[in-house]
Here is the input.
Amino acid sequence: MLKHILKLFSLILLIHPVFADNDLPFSRQAVLVESTSPTVVMIRATGIGTDPKHKRRPKSDILDKNANTDAKRTAVWFVLSGGTDPMLQTDEEKASFEKIKTEFYKLDNIKKFITWEAQYYDKRIKTDQGKKLKIEKTYKINKEILREYLVDKKILQKGSVVALSVGMPSVMVIPEKINGMAPIEILKTNVNYKKGAEVIESYLTARKFEVIVPEQQQILQELSSTQFALQGSEDDYSYLLALSIGSDVYITYNVNITTRKIGSSTVKKAVVGCRAFETTTSRLLGTETGYSEERTSADGVLIEEAMNDGIDKVLSRILAYWKKDLEQGIQYKLLLTVSDFFDIDEAEENIFSFGDLVKEFTINYKENVVSDYTYDLQIWVDSEKYRSSTDIYRFCKKNYKGYGKIKRVSISRKLILLDIVEE
Amino acid sequence: MNIKKYYLKSLTMLLIFLSINFLFGNTGRYTRKSIAFVDAILYKDKAKNLPLEHEQYLLKTIHRGVKIERFDFNPLPEKVQKNFRQELKNQRTVTKVKISEIIDATILPEIIKVLDVKKEIRARNLVSESQTNAFIATKAHEIGITARQLEQVMNSSYIYVPFVSKYKISNDSKEKKISVTIESGLIWYHVITTDNPEVKKLATLSTSVSSSVEYEKNNTKKAIREAIHNIAPMIAKNLEIHTRELDMFKLQTPIAEVDNRTIHFPLGKFEGIKMDEPFFVGEFMEDNSGKTKFVNSGFVRIGKVADNRQQGQHLSSAWAIHKGDWVSGMTMVEHPRLGVDVAFKPRMINVDITQGGLFSDKDDKAFIVAFDEFSGTIPALDLSLNWNIAPLTKKRQSFLVIGGTGGIVPVDNYVVTEQEIFNFFDIFTIDIANEQQNSFATYFNGYLGYMKKYYFGPFALHWEAVGGIQGLSASGELDGDNISIINGSFGGRLGLGLEYAVNIDWNIGIFTGYTFFPSIDYWYVEYDDDEETISTFYDQDYPEISSIGETFGLYIHFSPPTLPFNPGNFINK
Here is the structure.
């Protein structure tokens, strides 16, 4: 009986807000208003204030103070753990944060991340017969300061030391094909698309991603050879381009501006779609649509506003993918072709022999296509041992024990094209 | 009706009237509205038409009254107004539906045009605090107006139609007095700017104001004109108050800062707030059914009015009279009032009358009016209108006071007819059996002055200095004709009072002061409607009538939302 009473008492202590940990966010209701800049987000958060000491006639200043504190905590909580793309993504990060959460949510601490706070409430209402105060207020949170704090506290890994100094992923930004026009051509001729690329690139550089800007002259040659090597298996221009350039991830986007009339004024709304892909497999990592408000502003302003709305979430998903992927090592696409000089049995032996070799230098691998003369796979290697794709090539060339010898067709940052030819 | 029920109902009505609880549909702040009006008067309920000259004057005055700073006005071209008037004339009977249809057909397209031209400028006022700190303002350096705000401007438009439902003239030819009563109002419509724009009736406001004017030489036309000129400004003022009382036009705003008993808030000259205007302070409360209502916890009066017509952080301030547990973020809601307090002051005044008489010898009808001695305090009732002139003087709680006092003086006075006069020659004793004796005389006083109040929380100290005239009147009869006699005096009064604000509309208190109306030999004697000349009778002096000394009493004031007469007339008179 006593045990039951104790259990019940503990439960009450846990669930009752008065006894709950007062230094944690309580309402946990917030909404992202906009990504004001690559480092700052505007959040509208709800705060709920109670006055545990004066239950019958709560004091307004205490209710107000507690509701404001709760709204501030909720705003920071939203960036950290709420929404679709929180800053704390992995289980390890969440577990580490749990240990410091009480210290973290202390008012003096969270104030550091709030760069602006609205003077007036968006909404203020008393509930529960006046015993609770519910407010809605808008805040700007500096994600970068928050990230640095978490890195200092070893909750997050610093960008440059993620997975043993491999670095942040390199990202290529390219518009989606429109009306059969090549993306690079679109970038050169369409100012709206150029603006879109600029905004995404601005976000990427601010987040310390390595940005690869596709410039036609430099990459055309490699693109052609990649196209040639992958002939028949792929015809996605962006994918091929990313492979050629060797980005870890590539982002495609589209821009659409709709207009309508309000009286004699034309108001426009920009809608942008952003999609991020893993380069080696063209797997979709994240897709998001960003919307601007309907305004009479110039297209460029609307595109930037819409892009701000969409890109931040996509980048969060890229980062989440990258962190997870790096746990397996660095990923490459490896395509081996066997010369038709060899008969089918010899070619098969060669592929088996190469497969054995793959097991030696990879942490993990995945076979995509195995045919008579082709071996297509994704590999994950230890970045300490193999710092570049050339290291992998060298290892393969040196340790291959099958018929013939290994010859390089093309090597880029993410794609290794090899050929087994007669000696 | 059951008395208990009646009182209960009255109390409920009073509570509602005093706006203890407001019901609001939203919890936001006031947003500016665009207003248009039709330049024509609609005659309702078969009301008699005003002469064109007076109609134009009434219209002009009403427009001026409703043209308050919180509105943006949409001027409509004369051609459009003319079309409307013509359409109105063409209708044999004008129903409410018909008016909407006529507005839709004649005026609405023009309103839409005006709104369209001005929408972007007006939408600037709707840009929120978050928007001014968002990307669009901080990086793109734009104002950040959205389509939603443009639509809000287009849908925040209203139009009113003035009407007259009663126009009555009474002529008292005996008194030579014209009394005019006009019942007038506004029908408010909301302009809905969809693909098929239309107007929707929102509210009907009405007020009734009367005025009486004396005339000479049967010149009633001039008297009517004067009466209408008295009535029209008051109708306009009453309609302005009624308009401000409508929820969609009522000012409300969050409190920016609470500093002891002073609060700061983002309203100012742009919204037309004025010094000393009362505002409730409270907060929105959600009940169990999810409905939201405004619950007030005290009230303030405007102190400093900020000039917020330019961009920037301009805060006005107000001082608490009844202060609740207030913090920033709570809401202030306007309590529209005329700015004229009606004060009742039951008081005791000192009156001294020395024994004496005065003689009138009109042809064959001579008479004497004599007063016995009296010295003491008498009860009197004082009624005044305290006109808040703080917006003019820039000193809060300063009032122009205009009022009067009435009381009964228990002094024996006599009207002695010719027959008794002979007795006087003999022994100067009055034959009691034949004289007319009154046991009282009427005291009255009219004054104009200045009052200043100093609030300390709900308590206020006030002082006043007034000057005016005083009179003591007695009457009698001679051969069936009335004799009336008035002694006049000029003087003044200084007063000091302590008040307590019971609520936003009522104050009660006490006061004391010193009255100085010395004895002056100014007499007005009337017999058979003719003024008489008077003289002393033998060695009998005129009575000396004065009111000098302390005065004290109770103070009660009420702030009415409207008045059925124009208090300005008293000042004019």
